[in-house]
Design goal:
2 strands, transmembrane helix, 144 residues, two-stranded antiparallel sheet, membrane, 7 helices, transmembrane, mainly alpha
């Protein structure tokens, strides 16, 4: 267990500018997805500030730990992380799924949370790729 915590600590100890880039990108991404979910009446957070707890305090550290892994591994570990998040969000009723939403109609109500977890697991490899591109463009352009 000590080895695991050492590994995690080494992965999350990053340049403050990189951490800020992750936080800004994921915060805006979370606000956008919550807005989209409300507009399309698919799902939403019960409280707006859950964007901070889910996207910044939960997803950013996981993204940092998964950073540098192959796409399929980031997705697989991300699927576990998002499965736990989706399950707990709906079980604790801190997330709200609109009745008869488009995903329910397309996949059926029993597959809603699974579909959400499968979709949101893509955040980790895509987020790491996107933040890496933004960070490089902003902070390494002068070194080329």
């Amino acid at each position: 267990m000590k080895k695991f915590f050492h590994f995690v600590k080494s992965k999350v100890s990053v340049d403050k500018r990189l951490l800020l880039t992750y936080c800004l990108v994921y915060f805006l991404w979370g606000l956008g997805m919550n807005w989209f979910g409300r507009q399309m009446e698919i799902a939403r957070f019960t409280f707006w500030w859950q964007v901070i707890t889910c996207y910044i305090l939960y997803m950013v550290p996981i993204s940092l730990v998964l950073r540098g892994m192959p796409f399929h591994r980031q997705y697989a570990y991300g699927l576990i992380a998002m499965g736990l998040l989706e399950f707990s969000g709906y079980a604790l009723q801190t997330s709200y799924a609109y009745p008869d939403n488009i995903l329910d109609r397309f996949f059926n109500i029993r597959n809603f949370s699974l579909g959400m977890a499968l979709f949101f697991a893509l955040y980790f490899p895509l987020g790491n790729w996107g933040v890496g591109k933004i960070y490089t463009a902003l902070f390494h352009a002068d070194k080329e």
